[in-house]
Amino acid sequence: MELIVLRGDEEHRLHVERRQGRFEVRLGGRVFEVDSVATDGSVRSLLIGGRQFEVAVRAAGDNRYLVSTAGGLEELEVLDPLTHLAAKGARERAAHGPQRVAAYMPGKVVTVLVEEGQQVIRGQGLVVLEAMKMENEILAERDGTVRHVFVSPGQAVEGGDPLFELE
Questions:
Q1: pLDDT tens digits for 128-150?
Q2: How does pLDDT run across 67-112, given as a tens digit for each residue?
Q3: Which residue intervals of 49-105 are DSSP H helices?
Q4: Rounded to an integer, what distance in angstroms lies between the CA atom of residue 153 and that of residue 129?
Q5: What's the CA gap between 36 and 39, in Å, rounded?
Q6: Would you tell me how many other CB atoms lie within 10 Å of the CB of residue 17?
Q7: Whole-angstrom Cα distance, residue 121 to residue 99?
Q8: Residue 167: which of 119, 132, 128 has the closest Cα?
Q9: DSSP letters spanning 43-63
């Protein structure tokens, strides 16, 4: 499972897999084996790399969580890649400038449905991306002109790679 964790101005992409009662967490180029046990209510005991941590997590509304550790209290936002992409697009639309749309997860470009310079309308399909054995049509979130297409059919992309830019 892919997760985007926002901590202030920092953005972290996590990949979490359950493996034999534990979790494998990939963050950047690092891999952590995490053993997690509920101790009391929202408190969990985590064993990470031979070190134990007590963590309390409390929902703070709309994908936000208050996380309390021995080091203090922090508020984090945890999103799936699609929700993060939609929120990022909303922020870019609010800026009224060129909108660069990126792949939300690793995949392969199946089809590019537009050309540079082409006028598009909100909701029009621009790129078809195959990710996790499903084809996803990436739609224009606003009316505009395709300023640049960064990909071509058959191209592999990673999460965060630019697909196209609208103005």
A1: 988 777 888 888 878 889 999 99
A2: 898 888 899 988 877 776 666 666 655 556 788 888 877 889 999 9
A3: 81-95
A4: 9
A5: 9
A6: 10
A7: 14
A8: 119
A9: EEEEEETTEEEEEEEEEEETT
